Amino acid sequence: MATPDFIRDLRADIGTKLLWLPGVSAVVFDDDGRVLLARRADTGGWSVIGGIPEPGEQPAETAVREVHEETAVHAVPEGVVLVEAMAPVRYPNGDACQFMDITLRCRAVGGEARVNDDESLDVGWFPIDALPELDDYARSRIEKARQAGPTWFRGMREAESSQG
């Protein structure tokens, strides 16, 4: 993922200290029920599409922009799948970040999937029963996006069931 200019500016002032950032993930399905994935240039692993909103940008706008920038696919958001504070991460350069991820279910409405920037090594459509190796982060987002139901919030289902 390319580091946005506004984050580089912040890093000039705060160094590698923990930076709390919004993140948006897009789980994009086509009319055949396949999911759009990208093989990331930074890790080499397959994942759902995602990125950091620009200052003032709405999460749905971020999802649409990131999907197109990375894959050349045009998508429309259909709903919020989940909202989750992720665990802090430290990158090889020492920068520490923690993301508040908003995952949106999206529907492809045009474009041909292809590598469209330098953040991906490959992109493609995958049937749900033939997904490539994915980390838990990507797999859980795909599974939750396939379910009909309310937005998932970490900790809320457990709290509801204990009040039963």
Structure description:
The chain has 164 residues and is α+β, with helices and mostly antiparallel strands. Helix content is 26%, strand content 37%. The strands form two sheets. Strands 1, 4, 5, 6, 7 and 9 form a six-stranded mixed β-sheet that branches.
Radius of gyration, taken over Cα atoms and rounded to an integer in Å: 16 Å
User: What's the mean pLDDT score?
Assistant: 92
Termini distance? 43 Å
Shape: globular
Oligomerization state: single chain
Number of helices: 4
* Major sheet characteristics: 6 strands, mixed
Strand residues, percent: 35-45%
Spans where pLDDT lies below 50 across 5 or more residues: 158-162
Helix coverage percent: 25-40%
Helix-strand string = HEEEEHEEEEHEH
User: Structural class, judged by helices and strands?
Assistant: alpha+beta
Q: Strand tally, please? A: 9
Question: Tags for this entry?
Answer:
26% helix, globular, disordered C terminus, three-stranded antiparallel β-sheet, single chain
What is this structure, in a nutshell?
The chain is built from four helices and nine strands; from the N terminus they run αββββαββββαβα.
Task: List the SSEs and their pairings.
Elements lengths: L4 H10 L4 E11 L5 E6 L5 E2 L1 E3 L7 H13 L2 E12 L3 E2 L5 E15 L9 E7 L9 H11 L5 E2 L2 H8 L1
Parallel strand pairs: 1-7, 5-9
Antiparallel strand pairs: 1-4, 2-3, 2-8, 5-7, 6-7
